[in-house]
Amino acid sequence: MAAALRATSSAISKTITSGSSRTPPLFGGARWSSSWWGHVDPAPKDPILGVTEAFLADPSPHKVNVGVGAYRDDDGKPVVLDCVRKAEAKIAGNLNMEYLPMGGSNHMVEETLKLAYGENSEFIKDKRIAAVQALSGTGACRLFADFQKRYQPESEIYIPVPTWSNHHNIWKDANVSQKTYHYYHPESKGLDFSGMMDDIKNAPKGSFFLLHACAHNPTGVDPTEEQWKEISQLMKDKGHFPFFDMAYQGFASGYPEKDAKAIRIFLEDGHSLGISQSFAKNMGLYGQRVGCLSVLCEDEKQAVAVKTRLQHIARPMYSNPPVHGALLVSIILSDPDLKNLWLKEVKVMADRIIGMRTALRENIEKLGSPLSWEHITNQIGMFCYSGLTPEQVDRLTSEFHIYLTRNGRISMAGVTTKNVEYLANAIHEVSKSS
User: Fold this and answer.
1) CA 391/CA 369 separation, integer angstroms
2) Which domain holds residue 185?
3) In Å, what is the CA distance from 277 to each residue of 86, 126, 135, 211, 274?
4) Are strands 30-31 and 177-182 parallel, antiparallel or unpaired?
5) Which of 23, 46, 59, 386 is the most buried (most CB within 10 A)?
6) CA dist., res. 347 & res. 251, Å (int)
7) Does the reported pTM lie above 0.70?
């Protein structure tokens, strides 16, 4: 044995000292290498985070960042809601650091389901919903993607064009095949309803569809209530499974009930469905990563089975979710005074965004632009799909120090009463030749 080890050691020494380019020897089935990760290339920059990096590096005093995906007040500053501060005061010094269960805070999940399914939902009463706390909306989507792959392994996911770019990454990394469906109509800067309906109709029966419940990211284009009814009915006829990503409930219109209307329509039509919920935007809990994944099942027995499987997937992924943000959400939603305060504050945020849409459109129009800018106020939510080309966006950045993603998506949270006129003038200048 000792002789064999000496021989192996000698062989390795000769390989290293001779500079041989031959494949390194194997140890227990793994290849040994003097540089384990030399073959790893840097990942491409995230298109949104890259915009922020460029903005921070720009020394211009006139620079404007309308690429940020987080709410800002009229001074361009991050906001912590008063309801969150009050909830934190309630738990100060009283919070232990014990693990939550794999499924997270039951209290938080219960309160969260009421927002999506309705305060007096029959599905909640009948215990037909399998639900777990997730790592915000991203984590909820990823949990569902893994669940889909594991229990419907041959299925595909239909994703709208365009969508939040991370949706593609999530289902790709879960090894779920992807297809797309028409959604945005570039000429009208609105919904391509006929194209969407055709794609739903032509998809194989029993397909999975990713839907944005409200404030579609990145376009800000939502179907009307009547269009949602038609979408729901066609998907029901085709036996499709709708999965709603609801990242902006309350933040879109200022009314959580209104922003959940699409989901309520599907529930009334008798769909089985899944929902990803997040409290990043509507409570400003970006860094707390508080979300919920729910799947509506046929009965309580099926819901129990599905929940155990979701927990089983979460266990090797992150074991269990964090406690602080979940406690904040459960306190705010279960305390009548704090919930009323939250409803007022989320409406203030939504109204500021809506107000900035109006101001931006009016400022562009008064410059005499021959183009239509109605889409700015027709769209809803944090993002405005401006219709600017990548080349026009480049000009905004190089000539006016205005930063946004090259697809023309403007984060309305970055627009303020102090910069809206400057932004409107810049947009007018670069769009003159259109």
Assistant:
1) 19
2) 100-334
3) 23, 21, 10, 13, 10
4) unpaired
5) 386
6) 7
7) yes
Examine the domain organization and report whether 160 and 57 are in the same domain. Answer: no
Phi, psi of 375 (to 5 degrees): -60, -25
Active site residue 41: no
Question: What is the Cβ-side half-sphere exposure of residue 419, based on CA atoms within 13 angstroms?
Answer: 22
Q: Are residues 162 and 306 in the same domain?
A: yes
> Residue 10's pLDDT is what?
47
Q: Looking at this protein, which amino acid is placed at residue 109? A: V
Instruction: Decide: helix, strand or coil at residue 270.
Output: coil
Considering the candidates 146, 199, 222, 245, report the single residue annotated as catalytic.
Answer: 245
Catalytic residue among 192, 281, 307, 342: 281
Distant-in-sequence, close-in-space partners of 245: CB < 8 Å, separation ≥ 6: 137, 141, 164, 167, 210, 211, 212, 213, 276
281 included as an active-site residue:
yes
Mean pLDDT of successive 10-residue stretches along the chain, which has 434 residues: 45 42 48 77 82 90 91 93 96 82 95 97 97 98 98 97 95 97 95 98 97 96 98 98 97 96 98 97 95 97 98 95 95 97 97 97 95 95 94 96 94 96 96 77
How far apart CA 235 and CA 227 sit, in angstroms, is: 12
Is 329 in the same domain as 355? Answer: no
| 146, 149, 164, 189: the active-site residue | 164
Shared domain check, 382 and 426: yes
Cβ–Cβ contacts within 10 Å for residue 288, how many?
Answer: 21
Which CATH number covers residue 143? 3.40.640.10
Tokens describing residue 69: 């995906």
228 tagged catalytic: no
